[in-house]
Recover the amino acids of this structure.
């Protein structure tokens, strides 16, 4: 089935004209019709628009366009509902955006389109990307394709589930504190968070601007390299994007990993680490050793403070970023007698509970009197965490950790306990505080229920080639990425029109 293919497999068939982009796109749309009633990865999906883009790709191929020039020509790629696509709804899984339709394309979307991709669908997420389970969406909970009573991870749960359920070939998400790597781990696909500044954030709705980065979900490491090659690069419209040349990531996959040094952080073998997750990561470590990598124990001494630091900085930035949703500029409005009443009624009705919690927390840590005690101190600890990593990277080429301390938990299990939910981010958030790159690659399954486990590789700033090469070498000698979840057909799906 065409919807099950990787980017590499599909583009090979398209190039030989064995199949058409229209067939591949239709196969994805059929799969959405078949399974998305159970998975609920899509908030919205414009089938006619997707097929129209596929026709354009097919015409280009018949006129001689190649995948060397356009690496994603004819490939259906779905988008997290936090990245602007011209003419498509943009909800951030929040009621407050109402019927808002984006008037412009994000830079990554321009790049995907220029590379020939069929850009389609709006994928479910935690509201404004705040969460680790996709339970905080105003449009319902996305379900883990391996067991629909479990969460898919978050906040980009829809992006991970859609790839794993073969509803698209690859997808985009955003990672502020693990939201690409963690759902990729919990659903069983590859998730890549590039270095801060590697990919333009223009057109990504801001959550915490100093941490946000757009990343991709793919069925293989090779596909992650292809996607990164397309979306990376400097953009004058994002002043934090870095003017560094974009390497040829797919070519970088093939280098030797012999002699590369992999750091294992002593502090990451914590109490809450699930025994099966730990065993899977230890086994992966042995695989790397068998490939000639050198395993080195390292220390990241400020790990204990990472969650507190992250949740102060992220909420502070969020409270400022979300001030723009006031009923005047965008989306939904609840009228009031005066502007203050209008703002408060609109925001009271439009934001969900977790978003409100974070705005209140973020406003508190920024308020005069508490600014020094919380926000400023968190910024200082952030520097210490960064120094831990930069020091470790003097000794190692990459750091190896579990992506998440447990496999996917049950829907509802942590929904009433925000602290438990925040603790699940322990292995992913430092990467955003530091600004380096990271990816998650499938490394096994738990036994009962059978759920995927992810291995995280953290690289130096702009060290994407190294972690991709390591992950690729690992993927070649392990079977995990080839496994497919046992999907059940749903009765009907309303998200695709
Ligand atoms: N779980 C983290 C949070 O809720 C990370 C979210 C993200 O990366 N967008 O903030």
């Amino acid at each position: 089935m065409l919807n099950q293919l990787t980017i590499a497999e599909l583009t090979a068939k398209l190039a030989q004209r064995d199949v058409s982009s229209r067939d591949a796109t239709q196969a994805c749309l059929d799969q959405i019709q078949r399974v998305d009633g159970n998975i609920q990865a899509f908030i919205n999906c414009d089938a006619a628009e997707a097929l129209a883009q596929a026709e354009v790709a097919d015409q280009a191929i018949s006129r001689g366009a190649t995948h060397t020039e356009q690496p994603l020509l004819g490939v259906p790629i779905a988008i997290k509902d936090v990245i602007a696509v011209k003419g498509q709804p943009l909800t951030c899984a929040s009621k407050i955006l109402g019927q808002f339709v984006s008037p412009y394309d994000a830079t990554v979307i321009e790049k995907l389109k220029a590379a020939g991709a069929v850009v389609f669908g709006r994928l479910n997420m935690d509201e404004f990307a705040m969460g680790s389970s996709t339970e905080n969406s105003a449009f319902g909970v996305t379900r883990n394709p391996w067991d629909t009573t479990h969460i898919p991870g978050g906040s980009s749960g829809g992006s991970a589930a859609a790839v794993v359920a073969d509803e698209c070939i690859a997808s985009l998400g955003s990672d502020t504190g693990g939201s690409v790597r963690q759902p990729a781990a919990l659903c069983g696909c590859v998730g890549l968070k590039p270095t801060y500044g590697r990919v333009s954030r223009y057109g990504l709705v801001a959550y915490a601007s100093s941490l946000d980065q757009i990343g991709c979900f793919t069925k293989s490491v090779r596909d992650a390299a292809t996607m990164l090659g397309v979306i990376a690069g400097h953009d004058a419209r994002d002043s934090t994007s870095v003017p560094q040349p974009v390497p040829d990531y797919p070519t970088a996959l093939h280098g030797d990993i012999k002699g590369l040094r992999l750091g294992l952080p002593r502090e990451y073998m914590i109490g809450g680490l699930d025994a099966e997750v730990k065993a899977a990561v230890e086994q992966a470590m042995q695989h790397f050793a068998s490939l000639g990598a050198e395993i080195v124990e390292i220390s990241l001494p400020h790990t204990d403070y990472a969650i507190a630091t992250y949740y102060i900085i992220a909420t502070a930035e969020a409270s400022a970023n979300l001030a723009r949703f006031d009923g005047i500029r965008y989306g939904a409005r609840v009228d009031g007698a005066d502007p203050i009443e209008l703002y408060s009624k609109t925001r009271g009705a439009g934001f969900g509970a977790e978003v409100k919690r974070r705005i209140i927390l973020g406003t508190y840590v920024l308020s005069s009197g508490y600014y020094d005690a919380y926000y400023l101190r968190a910024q200082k600890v952030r520097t210490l965490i960064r120094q831990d990593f930069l020091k470790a990277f003097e000794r190692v080429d990459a750091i190896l950790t579990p992506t998440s301390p447990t496999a996917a938990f049950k829907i509802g299990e942590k929904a009433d306990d925000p602290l438990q939910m925040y603790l699940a981010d322990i292995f992913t958030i430092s990467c955003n505080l530091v600004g380096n790159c990271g990816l998650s690659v499938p490394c096994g399954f738990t036994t009962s229920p059978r759920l995927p486990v992810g291995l995280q590789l953290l690289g130096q700033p702009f060290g994407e080639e190294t972690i991709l090469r390591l992950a690729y070498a690992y993927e070649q000698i392990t079977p995990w990425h080839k496994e497919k979840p046992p999907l059940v057909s749903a009765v009907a799906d309303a998200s695709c029109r």
Notes: The chain has 16 helices and eleven strands.
